[in-house]
Amino acid sequence: MKRDQLSCSDCRAYHCDRRDSAYPSFCPTASADAARLESIKSVYQDDPLISKMYAASAEIEGLHYGKLTRAEEIILFAKKIGVKKLGIATCMGAMAETVVFTGILKAKGLHDYICVCCKAGSISKDEVGIPEAHKTNPDKFEPACNPILQAEILAEADLNILIGLCVGHDALFTTHSKAPCVTFAVKDRVLQHNPMAAVYGANSYYKRLLRE
Question: What's the pTM value of the predicted model, to 2 decimals?
Answer without folding.
Answer: 0.93
